[in-house]
Design brief:
Blueprint lengths: L3 H12 L3 H8 L3 H8 L7 H11 L3 H4 L22 E11 L4 E2 L7 E5 L6 E6 L13 E6 L8 E6 L2 E10 L4 E5 L8 E4 L6 E11 L3
Parallel strand pairs: 1-4
Antiparallel strand pairs: 1-3, 2-7, 4-5, 5-10, 6-7, 6-10, 7-8, 8-9
Helix pairs in contact: 2-3
Length: 211
């Protein structure tokens, strides 16, 4: 027979959510989450509801009163399909302007529709990509790749720093141009041996903006 701590840890593992991210999503302290996972305390009604919502599981399943993990929801009208979400890891900040260090933050996750063709999220900083509708603070979904097509927006590492720019590579000239989407910024141009400083992280596939 399963226990509440076992169900909680199982849900966290399946959703790819660690204690820090679950704490942020529920407003419960990380210490309290730890107490729940170790069986020191059991959640009250409000805390149980927050945990179930953040993990997209039913309260009854968490309490071991049901074998049905998914939360119940009212039927949708004919012709409509539910949107399913999954967590994407946030790897850190990426500059839209001068490059900044991409610091990994693997304890942080953001949920988005599970058909989003991306591997991770980088948080945009600066204003150099505003004409591409990428603004400071936006969550940029990245599909991991070691090469992108000309004209695509790429996440690029330059000397251990990351930046987001439109990508243009000219192999016959051994020349790379990282083009901002803001006229007040000049293109970043790399030629010859300078190309060894550049490493492509992936291709931007979608952006989540906050009003």
């Amino acid at each position: 027979m399963s226990t509440f701590p076992e169900r909680l840890k199982e849900a966290m593992s399946l959703r790819g959510i660690r204690a820090t991210a679950l704490s942020q999503a529920t407003g419960l302290s990380k210490a309290r989450i730890s107490q729940y996972t170790h069986g020191v305390y059991s959640p009250n009604g409000d805390a149980l509801c927050r945990l179930a919502n953040a993990l997209s599981v039913s309260e009854a399943w968490l309490l071991c009163k049901s074998d049905i993990m998914e939360p119940e929801s009212p039927p949708l009208p004919d012709g409509l399909e539910p949107i399913h979400y999954r967590p994407f890891p946030v790897l850190g900040d990426i500059a839209c302007g001068a490059p900044v260090l991409a610091v990994e933050q693997m304890d942080e996750f953001i949920s988005a529709p599970d058909d989003t063709d991306a591997d991770f999220i980088l948080l945009a900083k600066g204003d150099s990509m505003i004409d591409a509708r990428i603004f400071d603070g936006d969550e940029v979904f990245i599909k991991q790749a070691d090469m992108v097509n000309n004209g695509e927006i790429a996440a690029v590492i330059l000397d251990d720093e990351a930046t987001l720019k439109r990508f243009f590579y000219y192999p016959e000239e051994n020349r790379l141009v990282l083009q901002p989407e803001n006229s007040k910024y000049a293109p970043m141009v790399y030629e010859g041996e300078e190309l060894n400083r550049v490493r492509i992280v992936g291709r931007a596939v979608s952006v989540l903006s906050k009003l």
